[in-house]
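F.,

This is the one I mentioned.
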């Protein structure tokens, strides 16, 4: 079930009404309702994959008790069983065909012909997200940061809570489970904030991302017919398309959770206002970045074992992060590009210079230095997005080549209006509003005047509804559903 579908517009009010007005007498009843609603939400795509979700949940629930054993050998054995189980599920459904094809090509280079059996099944929606939920739970038990949960329903809600089930954010057990286990009371202020986030997320998805996708797809599919400036518009358009799409999903997820009394982890904090690549990754897909930091980078030694191992560990997490996004070389290259961008900051010990304060922290406008830093970082990130968007590596390279060569051969085009310039219509409002909201991504207020704020909400809602009804005939899926 898509957030931007008519089915969800019926599903959400129904579950909300039952949750607060029928099942509100007991916490157990509310959690059972959330669990049933979550499985219905997920099963809307496929009941077979719903069974896979249930199996993964049950296994990690059981592993947790054995990992908590005071017997260190037994604890480690079941930790590895959990890791093998979760990575095995990912390996079969997400990566098997990739590796089978790569081995086939490798053998053929040696003159050996093979005919591997490929799986003809769709990738289960959200599999990378809910397996990471289960793995983090077991890891935290092993480290002594989390105790096993005795109530299976509570644990299942943690794994499958429908707002975050298919595209995150990737929650931690010590953050979400206590909220699942304690009594929740309706909070009108929290619910209003949730509605604002849902509206803002829908606006970013429907008006910005879906509208930009029409332009971006047309440019990329016909890139050989366009001049460099138009190809540049395609890159710029996709940068904001994927931001509007994924951050829009996260806003809807956070807002929906608020309606039920839950506070989820932030997943985006205005990443395109970052002043270097390190800050970008502290602001983009935060839950995934922190997951790899805590469960891969630090266990590998982080940056405490010398520069050589720090460089090694940096490349590992960026390459693995790229591969997490998809079983394709373009995602690995995308991760490698970001590793190369992060490397100078690491070697110069400047990778943590922008940890606490955001850009123009106490000012209305950025300084010239900050503006140059943001534009440089955005340019680098946008270049990397080419490999994220175009799955065929040779096509991505050809796109870049055509853009560079045409810019050199036809410099006069930069004095003309390019095809695709209308992307500015969608990008500028997002940049302006993001700048106003940048100090608190959850409040979504541009002034202290309630009248002006609510006027803005009405405008956003009206534009979103009109766009949805007139431009998007079928609800488009979210980009990160494929991961």
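My design for it:
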């Amino acid at each position: 079930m898509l957030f931007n579908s008519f089915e969800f517009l019926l599903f959400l009010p129904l579950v909300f009404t039952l949750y607060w007005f029928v099942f509100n007498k007991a916490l157990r009843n509310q959690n059972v309702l959330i669990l049933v609603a979550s499985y219905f939400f997920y099963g809307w795509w496929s009941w077979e994959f719903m069974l896979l979700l249930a199996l993964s949940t049950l296994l990690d629930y059981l592993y947790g008790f054995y990992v908590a054993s005071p017997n260190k050998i037994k604890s480690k054995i079941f930790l590895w069983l959990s890791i093998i189980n979760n990575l095995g599920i990912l390996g079969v459904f997400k990566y098997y065909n990739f590796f089978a094809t790569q081995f086939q090509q490798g053998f053929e280079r040696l003159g050996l012909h093979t005919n591997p059996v490929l799986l003809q099944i769709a990738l289960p929606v959200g599999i990378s997200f809910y397996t990471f939920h289960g793995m983090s739970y077991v890891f935290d038990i092993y480290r002594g940061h989390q105790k096993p949960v005795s109530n299976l329903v509570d644990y299942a809600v943690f794994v499958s809570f429908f707002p975050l089930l298919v595209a995150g954010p990737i929650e931690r057990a010590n953050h979400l489970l206590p909220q699942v286990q304690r009594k929740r009371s309706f909070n009108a202020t929290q619910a209003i904030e949730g509605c604002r986030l849902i509206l803002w997320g829908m606006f970013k998805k429907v008006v910005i991302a879906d509208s930009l996708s029409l332009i971006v797809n047309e440019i990329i599919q016909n890139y050989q017919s366009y001049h460099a400036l138009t190809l540049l518009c395609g890159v710029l358009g996709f940068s904001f398309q994927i931001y509007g799409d994924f951050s829009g999903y996260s806003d809807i997820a956070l807002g929906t959770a608020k309606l039920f009394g839950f506070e989820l982890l932030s997943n985006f904090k205005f990443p395109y206002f970052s002043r270097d690549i390190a800050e970008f990754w502290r602001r983009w897909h935060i839950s995934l970045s922190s997951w790899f930091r805590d469960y891969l980078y630090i266990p590998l030694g982080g940056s405490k074992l010398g520069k050589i191992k720090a460089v090694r560990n940096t490349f590992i997490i960026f390459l693995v992060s790229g591969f997490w996004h998809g079983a394709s070389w373009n995602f690995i290259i995308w991760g490698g590009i970001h590793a190369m961008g992060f490397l100078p900051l690491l070697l110069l010990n400047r990778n943590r210079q922008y940890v606490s304060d955001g850009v123009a922290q106490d000012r209305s406008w950025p300084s010239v230095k900050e503006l140059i830093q943001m534009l440089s970082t955005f340019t680098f990130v946008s270049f990397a997005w080419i490999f994220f968007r175009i799955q065929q590596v040779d096509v991505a390279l050809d796109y870049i080549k055509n853009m560079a060569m045409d810019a050199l051969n036809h410099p006069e085009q930069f004095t003309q209006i390019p095809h695709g310039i209308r992307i500015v219509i969608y990008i500028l409002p997002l940049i302006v509003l993001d700048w106003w909201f940048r100090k608190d991504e959850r409040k979504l207020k541009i002034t202290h005047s309630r009248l002006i704020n609510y006027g803005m909400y009405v405008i956003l809602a009206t534009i979103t509804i009109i766009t949805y009804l007139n431009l998007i005939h079928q609800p488009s899926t979210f980009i990160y559903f494929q991961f």
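The chain has a mean pLDDT of 90.

Talk soon.
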